Amino acid sequence: MELKETIYQVKDQVALITLNRPERLNAYTPQMRLELIHLLGQADQDDQVRAVVVTGAGRAFCAGMDLAAGGDTFNFKAKDPAPPSLAEHRDGGGRVALAAFKCRKPVIAAMNGAAVGVGITMTLAMDMRVAAEDAKMGLVFTRRGLVPEACSTWFLTRLVGAGKALELACTGRVFRAKDQAGTGLFNYILPADQVLPKALELAQEIAANTSATSVALAKAMLWHGLAEPDPQSVHLLDSKAMFWTGGQKDAAEGIQSFLEKRPPEFKMSPTKDMPDFYPWWKEPKV
User: What is the mean pLDDT of residues 179-188?
Assistant: First the structure.
């Protein structure tokens, strides 16, 4: 795919995706959506990529949907001469969120500046968020006559709890990232110039020290465990995963490298070497 609104770079086993419309504060467009879905899928399939960082060019992360179309921006019937039915329509932000969710590599949002609307909701499906302390953010949908999208009502409640999620979604207020310290919304809140370096540091820590198959399984187990009905269900999956990983060459290498006090050299691939029971959930249709 020709990239028009994003930049994709891979260095030291870390893929860096940069939203690249700085003159528009990286406002989200259908083209950006297609590129993000493509690039997250590409990173998922590339065994040379161990982690993904998503950031924005210039002074913003993503200022939300580009509103150049005015009041009909979200009027799908007005924009499409043959629009899908209500049952067939699929939210574009949700497709990006699901691409991040399905990626077997950890996805880290380096929120270097403003993140409003889809600019913040698409990051909730990512695995970690590093935010600029003074960046303006907000789930502003109710102030625009809309509702939160990008699967955010599922992710947000699990990150911050129902009470805080309801406050942020129902008020639609804009806040500074530092105002949400301690809520679970962000892993780190830092000065803007430290955001991308910290996100890359996290990604490189994963790349240098962990088994790719172990990380892929751990990510899936943590996210999907949130939807399991009870600890017993999680215990049954844990038991399978521990039984399987314990007999693999990455486990032998991880233990031997620890005993020999040297860096591990993991060889297994999350695209080729996953257990037969993976995935154990029903894949979403998008």
Answer: 98
Kind of pairing, strands 136-138 and 174-176? Answer: antiparallel
pLDDT at residue 82 tops 90: no
pTM of the model as a whole: 0.95
Confidence at residue 94, expressed as pLDDT on a 0 to 100 scale: 96
Name the H helices within the chain: 30-45, 76-79, 92-102, 118-121, 152-160, 162-171, 192-209, 212-225, 231-246, 249-259
Query: Is 282 a residue whose pLDDT tops 90?
Result: no
d(CA 135, CA 8): 24
CATH classification number, 6-207, choose in 3.90.226.10, 3.40.50.410, 3.40.50.1820, 2.40.30.100: 3.90.226.10
> Are the beta carbons of 221 and 237 closer than 8 angstroms?
yes
pLDDT at 285: 65
Q: Decide the pairing of beta strands 51-56 and 14-19.
A: parallel
Q: What angle do CA 77, 40, 27 make, to 5 degrees?
A: 50
Q: Taking 70 as the threshold, does the pLDDT of residue 286 lie above it?
A: no
Pick the CATH number of 210-286 from 3.40.50.300, 1.10.12.10, 3.40.50.11600, 1.10.3720.10: 1.10.12.10
Q: Measure the CA dihedral 150/153/154/159, to 10°.
A: 110
As annotated, the residues of the chain forming the CATH 1.10.12.10 domain(s) are 210-286
Cα–Cα distance measured from residue 119 to residue 65, given in angstroms and rounded to the nearest whole number: 8
The span from the CA of 257 to the CA of 263, in Å, is 6
